[in-house]
Amino acid sequence: MKKRWFHLIKVTFLSIFSLMMIYPLYWLITSSFKSNEEFFAEPYAFPTSISWGNFTRAWEVADLGTAMINSVIVTVSATALTVFLGALTAYVLSRFTFRLKAFLMVFFLLGMLIPIHSTLVPLFTMMNQVGLLDTYWALILPYTAFELPIAIFLTVAYMSSIPKDLEEAAVIDGTGYWGIFFRIMLPLSVPALSTVAILSFLRYWNEFVFALVFINDNSLKTLPLSLSIFSDGFSTDYALTMAAMTIAVIPTIIMYLLFQEQIMKGMVAGSVKG
Amino acid sequence: MQANLKLKGLLVITLLPALLLYSFFVIIPIFWSSYYGFFEWSGLGEATYIGFQNYMEVIQSSVFWRSFKNNMIIVAASVFGQVPIALALALMLRKRNWFQKVVRSAVFLPMVISTVVVGLIWGYIYDPELGVINAVLRAVGLESWTKSWLSDPSVNMYAVAVPIIWNYIGPYLIIFIAAIQNIPSEMEEAAMIDGASGWKKLIYIILPNMWTTIKVAVVLCISGSLKAFDQVFVMTGGGPAESTEILATYMYNNTFLVYRYGYGSAVSTMIIILSLILIGISQLLMRRKNG
Amino acid sequence: MKKALLGLVIVLMLTGCIPNADSETTNEETSGKTTISIWHNFAGDDLRARKVRDMIASFEEKNPNIEVDEQAIPVDGYRQRISTVAAADELPDVFLTYAGSFTDEFYHGDLIQPITPLFNEHSDWKNAFLDGALEPYNYDGELYSAPVAMSATSFLYYNKDMFEEHHLSVPKTWNEWMEVIEAFNQQGITPIALGNKAPWVAQSTTFGAIADRVTGTEWFLNAVEQDEASFTDPIFLDALNRFKQLVDKGAYADGANSMDNTQAEQYFAQGKAAMMINGAWSLSSLGASQSEEVLNNIGVTVVPTIEDGKGSGNTITGGPGGGFLLSSKTEGKAKDAALDLIYKLSNAEAQKQIAESNSMVMYDVEIDKKNVNPLFYEAFNLIREVEFAPVYDLYLTSEAGEAVNNGLQEIMLGGDPEKVAETIQKAQASNE
């Protein structure tokens, strides 16, 4: 009886909690169907009519198609680079002992403390001198660099918990270091790596300040830049902003729903092994 | 000897790409930035060397220390809000039925929304006229509790901290779920045989096995909160009257609003130093607890 | 081992610092086509932004030898972007500036060059600018830009029906204003809508006008120069206290400091507040978002006079707005092309186009009533009968401007005007 009550309370609590988490997104999506007048008059009501006008207008004016392609290119490349470099570095840092190891670990972790904005001006000057500005690299490389510390941190923590017997067996079988990395460590670290991938994907997809400063060329602009186009400092077109934001958020939700199964599967694999 | 050489080669090849990338884009700019801190520079034209003046001004600035205090509020809210909530959720969400899956997805959902949108939405939730919070308070007869949440300096910093917590529970939840699932099942079974259940199991088996992960989460929390920027910037811009200024917005406003690049650079150097000290302290505290 | 790392860092710094082959001077291409770059902030969907972009496109069409590399940057990030590229000495050939300290910085940094020849060539055009229009861009007798906008920041908008319904008349003096505010408060109506989340709003729309009425323009200009006038003078304290009086009378809604300007406009347009003090930008945004009926119910006038103040009452804070600047690095064919482009974007035709997109200009131009919204037409005529008073943040250093902005928010939160005055004075004095 006591258990049943407990269960009921738990389910109620979790349901309310979930609603709180979901509500803002629901609000964003319903708002994007409203006209500006309706948005201000009835901010919480369901839209009186479903019209796609805001979406088509926002898509055209802000050239969201191009922005979407750019965001995909930058985000996917940077995420892949982050996962690969993070895994490789974490493998070495968690599996080998060498003199610089402790120092390197601290050196990388320092990066987690650095506010991204404090490096804007120097980074701009440096990238300008090596001719990186106005290329996809101007985003891919700094994004990866800033995400590496967390990637390494999470992956090292996870890899350290993987027992060494598998590797030892492989060494006896004559497998080289690279073989161990690609065939044993990488597959076993999928849970940690999917977490890294998701976190970095989301951060890159939504990043605004670097994109603003390092990219001039209209044809290379990413999505977050296109979201502020409807605000001119004096007034904001909320209807178009909401529509553009909804368009921008859809790919991340799809990505997440796809990836989420991946994580859960990876976790099960992890616990079976444990 | 040969094996040793081969190992050294491997170490260099594997570590170099990440090291180069990281040094070039993260570390070197910091040195540049702390160097700029020695100049009076409007960002345009000539910079004049002024020694430690900027750094002295930062240390003496009351707004800087208010920002630091505000940052501490966010840090505390994250460490004592995000971590326990995520931990509790992780313990409740150990089954794989559809209900729990939905809850998990819901908790992670705010992560996918850009921080700019998060700031905007919460700005509305807090609105004194149209906002949900005041509407609910009025509905239950607590009219006197209604406030203009973001502009009343006695509450606005706490109001600002809530969306930041809300935004990032998801990743901690995932980290914790992964950690719980990695607790060797023999241990739990053994505990069951010994008759340990419920709270006892939690205290003696689950938590100790998760301690490393929790420590990781706390460090992530601290560093994440010190870097917080976007949501505050969108919701209040550090105002009104700099009452919700945090370190990053203070630095940003000085650099890009007032055009004091030198001073802004000195502020960012100070932020890094303060962060290092904080992380150091937190590590010490938790080591003691652990031992 | 630390040495090894230090070595690595030094190598990286060196390679990072060796200037790469001049990728910067791509102004003139070998193909015979001249490329010029232009940056502006007309990026949005409003009428004026679309018209300016069309003008640039038509310029490119009519000049097949010139290629225009155009960057429309959202207003939110515009200043930051321009500042960053200016810091790296990478300014585009032509770029939009704001009048005042922003332009001063470019001038003092030797980053821009005069466009005086353009004015000599087209003297009719030069003479058609309103009085004082070119002043902010005049440095040592050379002109650096032609304004394509007027900033008029302090119109008093009022809801005609609400005044009628409560048998009140539109206030002409400070005392009348206080009475009106009290009357609306008694009816449970917010007297004045204000969206001061971005803290420049109260300063730019309201305080500048009040202060000018109290201190007079001359005192302010002296205080800016720190010439026998200081922001701790009793007269300025009186101005701050007038603002405090507004706050204490309950002129503003509770959350005014967390509402943005658009929200305040909507609040006013929906009849939740009786008045709003806002700039000319509201003419275009209200025009775009409200029905004809709502617009006809809105009246527009100047902020009430202050009887015992030193300033003239019939003023609106404002003056010349932004214009296009020419980078000091642009030379030869590219310079000719850039000058042509600047002319095209600020000549008589351009000014008319901009005015007819419901935006004020500093240029003597007739507009067709049919092409603009009724509210704009009323304001357009009003502006010709008033004088301009300085907008505070266009004259103060950016640091002192911020001090005023934050100080007004402090006063709204119950802060002490005397302390606010001290902070402003300190900020302004530190840059002299």
TrEMBL record, chain A:
InterPro entries: MetI-like, MetI-like_sf. It comes from Virgibacillus massiliensis. It is a multi-pass membrane protein. One of its GO terms (biological process) is transmembrane transport. Residues 68-259 form the ABC transmembrane type-1 domain. It is found in: Cell membrane. PANTHER family: ABC TRANSPORTER PERMEASE PROTEIN MG189-RELATED (PTHR43744:SF12), ABC TRANSPORTER PERMEASE PROTEIN MG189-RELATED-RELATED (PTHR43744). The chain crosses the membrane at residues 7-29, 67-93, 102-124, 136-159, 180-202, 238-259. This is L-arabinose transport system permease protein AraQ. Belongs to the binding-protein-dependent transport system permease family. The lineage of its organism: Bacteria, Bacillati, Bacillota, Bacilli, Bacillales. Keywords: Cell membrane, Membrane, Transmembrane, Transmembrane helix, Transport. GO terms for cellular component: plasma membrane. PROSITE patterns: ABC_TM1.
TrEMBL record, chain B:
This is Lactose transport system permease protein LacF. Keywords: Cell membrane, Membrane, Transmembrane, Transmembrane helix, Transport. PANTHER family: BLL4140 PROTEIN (PTHR43227). It is found in: Cell membrane. SUPFAM superfamilies: MetI-like (SSF161098). It is a multi-pass membrane protein. It comes from the Bacteria. GO terms for biological process: transmembrane transport. The lineage of its organism: Bacteria, Bacillati, Bacillota, Bacilli, Bacillales. PROSITE patterns: ABC_TM1. Its main location: membrane. It comes from Virgibacillus massiliensis. GO terms for cellular component: plasma membrane. Belongs to the binding-protein-dependent transport system permease family. The chain crosses the membrane at residues 12-32, 72-93, 105-125, 157-181, 202-226, 261-285. CDD domains: TM_PBP2. Residues 68-282 form the ABC transmembrane type-1 domain.
From TrEMBL, chain C:
Residues 1-21 form the signal peptide. PROSITE patterns: PROKAR_LIPOPROTEIN. Keywords: Signal. PANTHER family: ARABINOSE-BINDING PROTEIN-RELATED, DIACETYLCHITOBIOSE BINDING PROTEIN DASA. This is Multiple sugar-binding protein. The gene is msmE_5.
